[in-house]
Design a protein that fits this description.
The chain has about 425 residues and is mainly α. The chain folds into 2 domains: about 220 residues, Growth Hormone, Chain: A (Up-down Bundle); about 210 residues, Growth Hormone, Chain: A, CATH 1.20.1250. It is about 75% helix and about 0% strand. It has 18 helices and 2 strands. Strands 1-2 form a two-stranded parallel sheet. The radius of gyration is 21 Å and the shape is globular. It is found in: Cell membrane.
């Protein structure tokens, strides 16, 4: 990237071709690795360090089991309630500053979790962390979508998803190490240091001149206007995203549940879950390369279909060995879909009003994460756990069918489908 004469250290332009897109021949993903993925690894590490102990901390402060479960759910609630405002914030102040704000808010939330105050203060801290995570994720996705050439978009976004997973995978181990020596609250200190590091890196990355030029046009885009113009995309491809997110969230629940159902110890269940997570975190880059080369369907459909197969096979497993084999298939199939939700959102989002569109896109994904466990719970209540897992597998096949039907046939790696800047007027209320 070249420096713009007279610009501040935070304002740089991208190497562009005549069409205004980033020139792929002059771009190397490793050149932006630390700035692009360092904050994501650290944010993921922070979440990984604190997520396993939220309920334990709540109970330690006097919560009942049901209240502790609700406090743990505040992470997701904070994200859902903040997705659309996140798009508005990124539109007004830019992606870079939005990431800095997210790190600051997350740090405040972690301080609330560290301080020895009551349950309400602790719950507020957890909610703030969930809200900050939504702001950070949307801003990072929007930033990379603009920064990276279209032909490398899937690799960039799958690596973004993978870097977050690596952090979430490593975080619990680092947190456990500190807790062993310094107690429960030290895991939040680890998370606090990580988010401050993420905020520091985000502050140092360059702004994008292209977004600065589009800022006035972005400001004219409203959420209602975006829904009116792109309702068909949200209704069709968005349905596939909801179903994909549903089975992804359910997969995190069924492994420990089925392990307990067949009589495995908690240690065995945790080992199986961890090994599946390692396979999941290790397959993100090849997935992005396949998407860029062969199109989004080449990854999205196998990802969801194989997850469906793994769900159907799980009730047939009756011991450690068979369950770990099924879990490995489940982890691998989810891993090859790393970044698919972000990539598809970037592909179908307009160039003007992109943060607003992505906020709505994330809302669909979060809706799916809420629906998946509800389906499993409801079917299990009226049938059996095995029946609930089978029905959840059918959700995976439905996701594969929806994504096959509605993913645009023309590869985004060859043609940018975003509307021209002349369109923003059509998006106003």
């Amino acid at each position: 990237m070249r420096r713009v004469p007279g610009a501040s250290p935070h304002r740089r332009s991208r190497t562009s071709n005549q069409s205004g897109a980033v020139d792929e021949s002059d771009f190397r993903l490793r050149d932006i690795a630390v700035a692009a993925y360092g904050p994501s690894v650290l944010f993921g590490l922070a979440e990984g360090a604190m997520l396993p102990i939220i309920t334990l901390s709540a109970i330690e402060r006097g919560a009942s089991i049901s209240v502790a479960a609700f406090i743990a759910a505040l992470i997701g609630i904070g994200s859902i309630l903040t997705n659309i405002p996140s798009g508005m914030l990124a539109t007004r102040i830019g992606e870079r500053l939005s990431m800095v704000v997210a790190a600051a808010v997350s740090a405040i939330g972690l301080i609330f979790c560290i301080l020895p105050f009551g349950l309400w203060v602790y719950g507020t801290g957890v909610f703030l962390i969930g809200a900050a995570s939504s702001v950070f994720s949307l801003a990072r996705q929007s930033y990379l979508t603009e920064m990276v050439p279209v032909g490398m978009r899937a690799r960039a976004l799958s690596t973004l998803g993978g870097s977050m997973r690596v952090g979430i995978f490593v975080g619990p181990f680092i947190g456990a190490g500190f807790m062993h020596f310094f107690g429960l609250a030290s895991a939040y200190v680890v998370a606090l240091v990580a988010v401050l590091g993420a905020g520091g890196i985000a502050y140092g990355v360059p702004d994008l001149d292209s977004r600065a030029h589009d800022r006035a046009a972005d400001a004219s885009v409203t959420t209602i206007g975006m829904l009116r113009r792109y309702w068909h995309v949200f209704l069709t491809l968005g349905t596939g995203i909801v179903l994909l997110s549903a089975i992804r969230q359910t997969r995190q629940i069924v492994i420990p549940l089925w392990a307990h159902h067949i009589g495995l110890s908690s240690a065995s269940a945790s080992m199986i879950y961890g090994i599946a997570g390692a396979i999941d975190a290790a397959t993100f880059y090849p997935a992005g390369k396949v998407m860029d080369r062969y199109g989004r369907r080449a990854v999205a459909v196998p990802c969801t279909a194989l997850m469906g197969v793994s769900f159907l096979l799980m009730p047939l497993s009756h011991g450690f060995t068979t369950l770990i084999l099924v879990s490995l298939l489940m982890g691998m199939s989810n891993g090859i879909g790393s970044g698919i939700v972000m990539t598809l959102g970037a592909d179908v989002s307009p160039s003007v009003g992109r943060p607003t569109f992505l906020g709505l896109w994330r809302e669909l994904a979060d809706a799916g994460t809420g629906i998946g466990p509800v389906i499993l719970s409801a079917v299990t209540a009226v049938w059996t756990l095995g029946g609930g897992i089978v029905v959840s597998g059918v959700v995976g096949f439905a996701a594969a069918a929806a994504l096959w039907r509605w993913i645009p046939g023309q590869r985004a790696s060859r043609t940018e489908r975003a509307p021209s800047p002349s369109e923003p007027g059509a998006l106003r209320e």
